[in-house]
Structure formats: structure tokens, C-alpha cells
Design goal:
Elements: H1 2-23, H2 25-28, H3 32-82, E1 109-111, E2 116-122, E3 131-136, E4 141-145
Antiparallel strand pairs: 1-2, 2-3, 3-4
């Protein structure tokens, strides 16, 4: 959305200004119209790349969610056997079986007093397009606070 809005609010006016500058012979020989067209071309290239980046982000989040959903029955079984939730995921899954999603490389499981939760942040270093996914064992619901929504195919 940010790139799309920048194309509309910045790119189109810059392109129009460049076209107007081309009408005047005095500015035709300068580099000003070229900068305007270059800026618009750059914004369009970024706009074309955001679709692929969004698909990649959705795929990683979908993988993370599916992996966590496979852990829920194991965690419930652990609770039934021990009367408490596991302290870490490595208590129920061998460490040599790493999660497939890049979002699950850091701590994503949290043990609580009355349940457990999964959560991760995608794109944490780029706040304009980052989102958060959370699962609570108490509500048994996923909460997706992000631009990738419900991760539908």
C-alpha cells in the first residue's frame, strides 16, 4: 500500500512535471525531466516487486502457522502426561528437527500459567509492512494483525 500510494501521490506528479518541463526548450537540455522519469520508473519497479515479496511473506507465515498447528496436539499430550506445559518446544520436538519457517528461528513459543501461546513478527526491521501472528491456547484462535490477513491460499 505504501508503494502504491507513493506512485500515485509522488510518482504521477513528478512524471507530469517532467512532461511539462519537456515542453520548454530551456529545460529540455537539462537533466530535470530525466530525474522525474527515473524516479517514476524506480517506483514502478518497486511496485512490481512488492507482489512477489508479499507472496513470499504469506508463504513463510503459512508455513509457520502450519508447523505450530502440528505442535498443538503434542503440547496438549505433554500437559495431559505431566500436568504442566513444556518449558520449551525442545521438550516435545527434537532439536534436530528445526521449523521450516524463517519466522520460527527465534523464540515463538511461550508457556503461560493457564496455557501457552505462539507468536512471531515478520519483517521486524521494516515496520511499515510488518505483522504479528499470535495463537492462544485459551481461546484456541489465531490473531493476525498484519497486512497478510488470514493467510488464505
Amino acid at each position: 500500500e505504501v508503494v502504491f500510494l507513493s506512485v500515485i501521490l509522488i510518482g504521477i506528479p513528478i512524471t507530469l512535471a517532467s512532461l511539462i518541463l519537456l515542453l520548454f526548450p530551456r529545460f529540455r537540455a537539462t537533466k530535470l525531466p530525466g530525474f522525474g522519469f527515473g524516479a517514476m520508473a524506480g517506483l514502478l519497479m518497486i511496485l512490481l516487486g512488492t507482489s512477489h515479496a508479499d507472496q513470499l511473506k504469506r508463504a513463510h507465515n503459512r508455513d509457520a502457522k502450519q508447523y505450530c498447528e502440528t505442535l498443538i496436539p503434542r503440547i496438549d499430550d505433554y500437559f495431559a502426561m505431566h500436568g504442566d506445559y513444556p518449558n520449551t518446544i525442545s521438550d516435545i520436538v527434537p532439536e534436530e528437527v528445526p521449523p521450516s519457517s524463517v519466522y520460527l528461528k527465534r523464540q515463538y513459543y511461550r508457556k503461560g500459567t493457564n496455557g501457552f501461546s505462539f507468536s512471531w513478527v515478520d519483517s521486524p526491521k521494516f515496520p511499515l509492512c510488518s505483522g504479528v501472528a499470535c495463537y492462544s491456547s485459551q481461546s484456541k484462535l489465531w490473531d493476525f494483525c498484519a497486512d497478510w490477513g488470514s493467510l488464505k491460499e
